[in-house]
Automatic annotation (TrEMBL):
The keyword Lyase applies. Its cofactor is pyridoxal 5'-phosphate. Keywords: Decarboxylase, Lyase, Pyridoxal phosphate. GO terms for biological process: amino acid metabolic process; carboxylic acid metabolic process; phenol-containing compound biosynthetic process; primary amino compound biosynthetic process. The modification N6-(pyridoxal phosphate)lysine is found at residue 338. PROSITE patterns: DDC_GAD_HDC_YDC. This is Aromatic-L-amino-acid decarboxylase. Belongs to the group II decarboxylase family. GO terms for cellular component: cytoplasm. It holds the Pfam family Pyridoxal_deC.
């Protein structure tokens, strides 16, 4: 079997057996059971050894754009080669150019969590290769996805109106959900449903009517929302990014939202959709779900809650209050691939009324008709998403919950929050630094303070940029940044699946040491 070894040149597969020459005259069997067993054994060994070694590998690779084309063939191979050849090239060329999101020294962006149960579930789903566009095409996959969604909804204590249970195979009236690839998809399909509903409600038919529709979000909302608005056909001039300030910890101001919506009504426009965020990307701001929903209800606008990252924390009772008022919204999405130990891609979307989605997204070609679809007792995945083909994502999510249970998942969240709190306390105890916004979950936004007053802000930004660049060049940690209130800020996101307290402490020691070097150099 192959194994991984770390040295100055990267990771390599070592195999004691000589590489056999492939006989091109043999009958080609791409799923020969013995090949499957052999290849997967080697791949699993690689994965296990990778997780064992990744802590010692530089988090950011020392490569330049285009590096890989110099190492791999520019033309596809004309003949076959042993699987070991691909594995050796993977280790020699691909791994050294990888940013290691799995590293416990990865503190950038948000975590991309993973687990043994999720990897196993994804592997099995890939092997089965189910194309679950309809219930009949994949009965077990369709129903397991619905069960997994209902389980997670119960962990989040979502209202029953968002669950599939109670309806035969998830069909019939009422709410339910679907597992999509990303939050972008969840936003797009709900924007389309809201758009079509507003056009029907107001009698504005056709493309011309779209120019009357307006949508709303905080200026802290993820950029993917504004991209989804364009894809859904909304006029960019009618997309309202409402400024959020430090006085509200950068959360959406419901009063400002109401003023904006009323102004649009007075101008003859139709408020259509509001996006509230639970845990914004820059600072983890939490929009007031209940207040936002109350405002939107006055104007009959769709309310979507983007809980992609921080929604996972709400499986813990002490964080559930951030979702208060969710019973008033129309849809909510959360991505277990961020913080709930389920590998990419996995975004759960729940809606209170599935028919509002399917009315906009349903397709019913003759070749997909069958007794189940004609019965009206099932909702097909194809009718709640952009595409038709549907991956068996529900298996990995179900396996995570079935294997670890609520207690272990809550332990995982609480451990990350505790480590982030510890880091925040270190920052606050050092007068050279400041915490820019209060920590809510496992993200700490901090920076080196300006040495004097406002005149030094630009210099402070430069110093913090230098700090981040030096830290990342070491390969020992990886941090990202944002701009908050016009200030350059470092983001320290705890949550990588293999992170322990020692990794956070080591990162703080490196930050402390590097900061001293920078400030001493200035003096």
């Amino acid at each position: 079997m192959g194994s991984l070894d770390t040295n100055a040149t990267g990771l390599h597969v070592h195999d004691s057996a000589a590489i056999d020459v492939v006989d091109e005259g043999e009958l080609f069997r791409p799923l020969d059971p013995e090949d499957v067993r052999s290849y997967l054994h080697k791949a699993v060994d690689f994965v296990a050894d990778y997780f064992h070694s990744v802590e010692s590998i530089p988090v950011l690779p020392d490569v330049q754009p285009g590096y890989l084309r110099k190492l791999l063939n520019q033309a596809p191979p004309a003949s076959s080669a042993p699987f070991d050849v691909a594995m050796k090239e993977l280790c020699a060329a691909v791994v050294p150019g990888t940013t290691h999101w799995a590293s416990p020294n990865f503190f950038a962006f948000f975590p991309a969590t993973n687990s043994a149960a999720a990897i196993a579930g994804d592997l099995i789903a890939s092997a089965m290769n189910t194309v679950g566009f309809t219930w009949q095409a994949a009965p077990a996959a369709t129903e397991l996805e619905e069960i997994a969604l209902d389980w997670l909804a119960q962990l989040l204590r979502l209202p029953p109106s968002f669950m599939n249970r109670g309806n035969a195979a998830g069909g019939g009236a009422g709410g339910g959900g679907v597992i999509l690839g990303t939050t972008s998809e969840a936003m797009l399909v709900t924007l389309v449903a809201a758009r079509d509903g507003a056009l029907r409600r107001t009698g504005h038919g056709g493309v011309a009517g779209i120019t009357c529709l307006t949508v709303y979000a905080s200026d802290q909302t993820h950029a993917t929302f504004f991209k989804a608005c364009r894809l859904a056909g909304f006029d960019p001039a009618n997309v309202r990014a409402i400024p959020a300030g430090a006085d509200a910890d950068y959360a959406l101001d419901a009063a400002a939202l109401r003023r904006a919506m009323q102004a649009d009504v007075d101008a003859g426009l139709v408020p259509t959709y509001v996006c509230a965020t639970l845990g914004t990307t820059s600072t983890n701001a939490v929009d007031p779900v209940s207040s936002v929903a109350d405002v939107a209800a006055v104007f009959n606008a769709w309310v979507h809650v983007d809980a992609a990252y921080a929604g996972a924390a709400c499986i813990c009772p002490e964080f559930r209050h951030h979702l208060d008022g969710v019973e008033k919204v129309d849809s909510i999405s959360m991505s277990p691939h961020k913080w709930l130990l389920t590998c990419l891609d996995c975004t759960c979307l729940w809606v209170r009324d599935k028919h509002r989605l399917t009315d906009s997204l349903e397709t019913n070609p003759e070749y997909l008709k069958n007794d189940a679809s004609n019965s009206g007792v099932v909702t097909h995945p194809k009718d709640m998403q952009v595409g038709v083909g549907h991956r068996f994502r529900g298996l990995k999510l179900w396996m995570v919950m079935r294997t670890y249970g609520a207690a272990k998942l809550q332990q995982h969240i609480r451990s990350d929050v505790a480590m982030a709190k510890m880091f925040e306390e270190c920052v606050r105890a050092d007068l050279r630094f400041e915490v820019v916004v209060p920590r809510k979950f496992a993200l700490v936004c901090f920076r080196i303070r300006p040495r004097n007053a406002i005149a030094e802000e630009e210099d402070a930004d430069d110093v913090n940029r230098e700090l981040m660049a030096r830290l990342n060049r070491t390969g020992k940690v990886y941090l990202a940044h944002t701009v908050v209130g016009g200030r350059f800020v470092l983001r320290f996101a705890v949550g990588s699946s293999m992170q322990e307290e020692r990794h956070v402490r080591n990162a703080w020691e490196l930050i402390n040491k590097t900061t001293s070097e920078i400030l001493q150099g200035e003096n």
